[in-house]
Design goal:
Shape: globular
Number of domains: 1
CATH class: Alpha Beta
Strand content: 35-45%
Radius of gyration: 15 Å
Number of helices: 5
Length: 146
């Protein structure tokens, strides 16, 4: 078994560098990525790259910081914080959000199954409500925050 903690750090570095080729190389062709809040499912290296490109098209300055990393066997759990400015269109499952110019900080947790140096399955948990609030979307929808 490879050092999956080091693998996860390298994977996040590839994301932060917008190195789509390195992201694709780190993902198994059979990989399934499930966004737990929306239920959206992406598959294989192309799915991960699609996700990365959509995010960085919307927030080119987005940077991720690993807050906590646990690796045991083939399972890697990463808690992280992302911060960036919404300066481009954000493509979501529910539609596209035009640039707002607002800064966004997101806290998230991903769980990866890693075998032979590749992500074979992933589940992503993020607070989409906090993102919507920071982008000013809850006010547009007539929602208020406590």
């Amino acid at each position: 078994m490879a050092d999956n903690a080091a693998f996860a750090r390298d994977f996040f570095e590839a994301w932060n560098n917008h190195d789509y080729d390195a992201v694709a190389r780190a993902v198994s062709p059979e990989c399934t990525v499930v966004e737990m809040g929306s239920g959206r499912t992406l598959r294989g290296p192309d799915g991960f790259v699609q996700l990365a490109k959509a995010l960085f098209d919307a927030m080119p300055d987005m940077r991720f910081t690993l807050d906590h990393l646990t690796a045991q066997g083939d399972t890697v759990v990463v808690e992280y914080t992302g911060h960036g400015t919404h300066s481009g269109d954000l493509a979501l499952r529910a539609g596209t959000v035009p640039a707002t110019g607002r800064e966004v900080t997101v806290h998230a947790c991903d769980i990866y199954e890693v075998r032979d140096g590749k992500v074979t399955a992933a589940r992503a948990y993020l607070d989409t409500g906090a993102i919507m609030t920071q982008l000013g979307l809850t006010k547009r929808l007539g929602m208020t925050t406590a």
